[in-house]
Amino acid sequence: MQIELQLGKKGITHELLGEIKKRFDLNKFQNIKIHVLRSARENKEDVKKYAEEIQDYLGNRYTIRIIGFSIFIKKWRKSRV
Q: Among 67, 4, 66, 69, which residue's Cα sits nearest to residue 38?
């Protein structure tokens, strides 16, 4: 099951990070797709910066993949080293 979120002109906020963590903690979702809107980016480098910031917040139990202007996050059962 996957949920979709949007990242807008405010960028990454504590509320967005908390929402991502909350969705994973409910154990209903193993994948989250985040659409990075035009108001939040100028180029693909901005998307990479957002992905790195989310990865730092979540830790190594999560993997992040960037496709186009979307960020896909997957939760694993065990830590990935």
A: 69
